[in-house]
Structures are given as C-alpha cells and as structure tokens.
C-alpha cells in the first residue's frame, strides 16, 4: 500500500490503524467482521492481487518471496498480531501460489476488548476506543474517535487529510460488518447495504463526521436489531 495513502488513512479514519505497510507489498484487502449476539467477533481478511510495487526486479522478487514465505509459515504480521491478541481459531489459507498471490486469514475475538488489542486501539495514543452496547433486542458497536487538531486549522472537507489529495478508492481496504443474526437499523460513518444485513465503512461519510465534529471527536457506529 502506498505510504502516503496509508498515513492519510491512519490520521483521518483511525479505524484503519492496523493497516501497517509491509515493505512495498500491495494488495486488495477486504476485512469482514461477523458480529455475534454474545459479543464475539469473527474476522475474515482476504488478500487479493498481492504483489510488490517495487520497480527494481531483484527487490520486487525478494519482497514477494518474503510475503509468500511468511504467509505460509504464519509469520506474517497480521497473523502474529492475531495470536498476540489471543484470538482463537486462527488460520491462514493460501488461495494462489502464483503471482499475484491471494490468501485468507481468519480469527475469532471473544470480546470487544480483545478486538481492540488486535487493532492497537488499547493504546491510549491511538485516539480510538471501542464500545459494544447491549440491550434486550439490540446491539450497537461504537468506535469513539478523537482526532488530534491543528490549532490553526479547522477540520473541514477542504482541509481534512483525506481531501488533500485525490481519492484512489481502489487502494482503500474494505471494512465490512455483518451481524450474524439481525438487521442493521442505524449507522454513522458507514453505508448500510440494501438488504440491511451488512454495513461497510465509507471514507466520505467519515470525512463528513470529522468535518462536523467538535474538537475532532466523533463516533462511527452501527446498530442492529436481533432476530431469532
């Protein structure tokens, strides 16, 4: 992933904090979180079109071979961090052994706190805290974001970090949230599917939340109604 794009994601959409660059390896990422009624969260991360963006043939070959080796042996950073967070049912499956590579990583978090550790949100410096609100018939997942503010600049669509450079949406990872049982009834910072069975982070909506925020504080959330 291009470092400028990544840094922009990290500053503005703090949810994407976990997307640390790995040399010049780029891929199309889809990260799906399956939300269970009891608070467990199952994650499926798909890497498609994995390749090095290096223009040097030797460097490109070295980086791609390293990614493949680390994926196969479970030493890829994403896999190691799942284990550090004590996720269960951790697995990794290589879907393509030829370039461009493709693979799937899976892990289950027993609680919202465990997910926060994996996403690096347990560190106060991250500027993000996670909360799962429960009632008898509903669940609400909330990402409380507190952006660092420039005293001389107001957070607006014109000067927000995502708006400083042209959007290259094809390079943005996709984050999708899917209730295992239920229908999504409300959200902010993400787009609800027509069938209301999933919700995908939308960087333009997050931009709007940031622009409208007071002192850089806003919440990205989704509420779903439980079904039998």
Task: Furnish the topology, listing elements before pairings.
Layout: H1 3-12, E1 25-35, E2 41-52, H2 57-73, H3 77-84, E3 88-96, E4 101-109, H4 112-118, E5 128-134, E6 138-146, E7 174-179, E8 183-188, E9 190-192, E10 199-201, H5 203-212, E11 217-225
Parallel strand pairs: 1-7
Antiparallel strand pairs: 1-2, 2-4, 3-4, 5-6, 6-11, 7-10, 8-11, 9-10
Describe the 3D structure.
The chain has 228 residues and is of the alpha+beta class. It has one domain (3-225). It has helices spanning 3-12, 57-73, 77-84, 112-118, 203-212, and strands at residues 25-35, 41-52, 88-96, 101-109, 128-134, 138-146, 174-179, 183-188, 190-192, 199-201, 217-225. The chain is globular. Residues 1-22 and 153-171 have low confidence and may be disordered.
Provide a short characterization of the protein structure.
By secondary structure, the chain is an alpha+beta fold.
Tally of domains: 1
* Cα distance spanning the termini: 41 Å
Q: What radius of gyration results from the CA coordinates?
A: 18 Å
User: How would you sum up the global shape?
Assistant: globular
Overall mean confidence score, pLDDT: 83
Q: How would you sum up the major sheet?
A: 7 strands, mixed
Tell me the fraction of residues in β-strands, as a range: 35-45%
Work out the helix count. 5
- Order of H and E elements: HEEHHEEHEEEEEEHE
The secondary-structure class comes to alpha+beta
Helix content: 10-25%
Q: Give me the oligomer status.
A: single chain
Poorly predicted regions: 1-22, 153-171
Strand order of the largest sheet: 3-4-2-1-7-10-9
By DSSP, the count of extended strands is 11
